[in-house]
What we know:
The structure is a single chain. The chain is α/β, with parallel strands linked by helices. The chain has a single domain (7-239), classed as Metallo-beta-lactamase, Chain A (4-Layer Sandwich), CATH 3.60.15.10. It is built from 7 helices and 11 strands. The chain has helices at 48-58, 76-79, 82-89, 100-105, 113-118, 197-208, 228-239, and strands spanning 7-11, 27-32, 35-39, 66-70, 92-96, 135-137, 142-145, 148-154, 163-168, 174-178, 214-217. Strands 1-2-3-4-5-6 form a 6-stranded mixed beta sheet. A 5-stranded mixed beta sheet has the order 7-8-9-10-11, with helices on one face. Helix 6 (197-208) packs across helix 7. Residues 73, 75, 158, 179 line the site of zinc ion (ZN).
Amino acid sequence: xxxxxxxxxxxxxxxxxxxxxxxxxxxxxxxxxxxxxxxxxxxxxxxxxxxxxxxxxxxxxxxxxxxxxxxxxxxxxxxxxxxxxxxxxxxxxxxxxxxxxxxxxxxxxxxxxxxxxxxxxxxxxxxxxxxxxxxxxxxxxxxxxxxxxxxxxxxxxxxxxxxxxxxxxxxxxxxxxxxxxxxxxxxxxxxxxxxxxxxxxxxxxxxxxxxxxxxxxxxxxxxxxxxxxxxxxxxxxxxxxxxxxxxx
Length: 248
Ligand SMILES: [Zn+2]
């Protein structure tokens, strides 16, 4: 589904547009200058990544032109399909240097899959397939996709190793924020080992220093203009020593 000349949403489940697997995050395709890149391939239940490939073709794009797979953070609804995507598309995989070890080993505890299974979020028999990481990202690194530049920001709080990207060079500026902040200034708190209020606040204040048009989160509504108001609302809640409302 084409959102702008730069951005398609090609997957997502119950907390998205029902384009692919039930638990899939929004799966985004970047399209610039003949190059394609995929952001977070979803959870990877059997058959669901093929549905995402079908959605890409239905948008008139060739999945074989995808050369980069960019992972925002290691939660399974975002990266469970990474290994399958890497194998089927032979892409270069980009992830945070902090998250990379757990992604390479499929470390269930590090990514809080054990806790998520105990909460019945994922089936008991779900396994996170290990996925190679080719490029470890650090704050300030810039990933290019055609004419687009994605500047990397460390934004922990939702979990350790969480990245957000400011994307410029297209028809507007975008915050690819994953699970940093959502419509209405909501955030995504979870009772897991690496979800931290102080880090979440610092990440929000850091991203508040930057202007952007579109807020492109990992779930729920996407704001193509004026998206920064949602981040400002969350930052204001933190400034008042409170915590922003939870998405769940
Ligand atoms: Zn998450």
